[in-house]
Amino acid sequence: MVGPSDLPVAIVGAGPFGLSVAAHLRSRGVRFRIFGTPMHRWRAQMPLGMFLKSEWEASSISDPAGRYTLRQFCAEARLPYGKTPLPLDTFTRYAMAFQQHLVPMVEDVLVTAVDRKPDCFDLRLATGERLGANSVVIATGLSHAEYVPQELTQLPAQLRSHSSAHRDLSLFKGRDVVVVGAGQSALETAALLNEAQARVSLFVRGSSISWNETPLPDQRSLSQRLRRPASPLGSGLKTWFCANAPMLFYYLPQRTRLTIVRGDKTHEMLLGPAGAWWLRERVLGRIPILLGQSLLGVAAIGGKAVLHVTGPDGRSLDLAADHIIAATGFRFAARSLPFLSEPLLRDLRCVEQVPILSPHFESSVPGLYFTGIASAYNFGSVMRFLCGCQYTAERICDHLGGRQVSSRSPYGVTSERNPKVS
User: Fold this and answer.
1) Do 145 and 332 contact (CB within 8 A), yes or no?
2) Whether residue 262 has pLDDT greater than 80
3) How are beta strands 176-180 and 350-351 bridged, if at all?
4) Are 185 and 329 in contact (CB under 8 A)?
5) What is the CA radius of gyration of the chain?
6) Span 314-328, mean pLDDT?
7) Cα angle, residue 163 at apex, residues 206 and 202 outer, rounded to 5°
8) Nearest-5° angle of CA 134, CA 137, CA 143?
């Protein structure tokens, strides 16, 4: 049995958000344990040759002292900074150096179960260890959130996959591949496949592809800066709002927040699918793009995947390929996390399977916090990007620091209940 715990915090996940929270807790003297393979998805699942969509200045993990930035790492490692799109390899080298320098106590082990007991959370590890913690921070990033359209799941597994399943796209050399999607993942996957000499085409449901603007010059007039303010996520008033005002976003009506983050039939999502400005020349004119397509059905015929589609003119077409890659993004759902217990899930207030969070990222289960994509419906699309790490870490650690010094409840302080969401 697990009894009252003297461990204040357990962090599940060692990606950018988990490392940021850990670095902030460590700087405040709050004891914690953090579990997971450091930067696993970035180092083992993202494709070779990839560049980050985020600009260099928006791609640092949150160091509470503000010193261990990507810029500082590149200067010390004598790596070029800011002159090209940010290579995946450069970022992962920086992230691992950040982890080793600021969060060396990461335990490379999976958490297999999280349950709630009357006086603490009960965690089980893949090693067989069982421990209690007063609070748990879920920082699993995009793990267990891969989204594949239901139609494509009807195909045999060997004929379709999610884009996150491919580290080395050169394995598709000489093969026919259809990439489904219109965002950065789809566009860069298609570009890498084309450059690896695969025969690739891009299947897009929408009528066009969106591209991010080239970053604005540093020297602009005051009126230009007021009309189109710059932010870590790009330029423009709406983008600036999402990047710089997550707490104002939090107090918008629930339906408005959902529409902004996810979109609906009448409104496009803000910061929705779009390609980076530097990717355009590697796609346009080089890869066949089928726009305005509707997927009617799928079939496996003669060892190939066949998509039955209609184009914008209403004509039917069969697309045959050796493999279909769904570069259709990620959607968080609490029930997709295999380690959360059923009783805990029943107590978790959600909207569309996404936890409703307090201003401190705490869920309706006192002491249980969610970060990253799991918090985007509450604080905006900035939580899907690296630049969301700092705000997240500061808010969570402010709250956990208060719990650490109080003894008014088993969790440190009486939980801040979630406000009623309209």
Assistant:
1) yes
2) no
3) unpaired
4) yes
5) 22
6) 93
7) 35
8) 145
Beta strands in 199-334 (DSSP E): 199-203, 230-231, 234-235, 289-290, 294-301, 304-310, 316-321, 323-326
Query: What is the per-residue DSSP string for 25-41?
Result: HHHTT--EEEES-TTHH
Beta pairing class for 304-310 and 316-321: antiparallel
Domains of the chain: 9-144+331-405 (3.50.50.60), 152-211+274-326 (3.50.50.60)
Band (pLDDT 50/70/90 cuts) for residue 413 is very low
Pairing of strands 230-231, 234-235: antiparallel
Strand 135-138 with 368-370, pairing = parallel
Q: Which two tokens stand for residue 186?
A: 């789809």
Residue where the block lists tokens 């936890």: 355
Angle subtended by helix axes 389-405 and 16-27, to nearest 10: 40
Question: Is it the case that residue 93 has pLDDT exceeding 60?
Answer: yes
> 383-411 burial string, b = 16+ CB within 10 Å, else e?
bbbbbbbbbbbbbbbebbbebbeeeeeeb
Beta-strand pair 294-301/304-310: antiparallel
DSSP state of 174: T
Q: How far apart are CA 38 and CA 95, in angstroms?
A: 9
Higher-pLDDT residue of 413 and 181 is 181
- Cα-based angle 162, 166, 168 (whole degrees, multiple of 5): 160
Maximum pairwise Cα distance, the chain: 68
Nearest to 10 by CA among 35, 28, 38: 35
> At residue 400, does pLDDT exceed 70?
yes
306 neighbors 159 (Cβ within 8 angstroms): no
**Residues forming a β-bridge with 319:** 307
Structure tokens at 319: 């697309």
Residue 356's DSSP bridge partners are: none
The answer on pLDDT for 220 being more than 80 is: no
What is the rounded CA–CA span in Å between residue 364 and residue 196?
Answer: 48
Are the C-beta atoms of 76 and 253 separated by less than 8 Å? no
Distance in angstroms (rounded) separating the CA atoms of residues 126 and 113: 9
Sign of CA dihedral 233, 234, 239, 240: positive
- Stated pTM of the model: 0.88
Instruction: Extract the tokens encoding 135.
Output: 């609070």
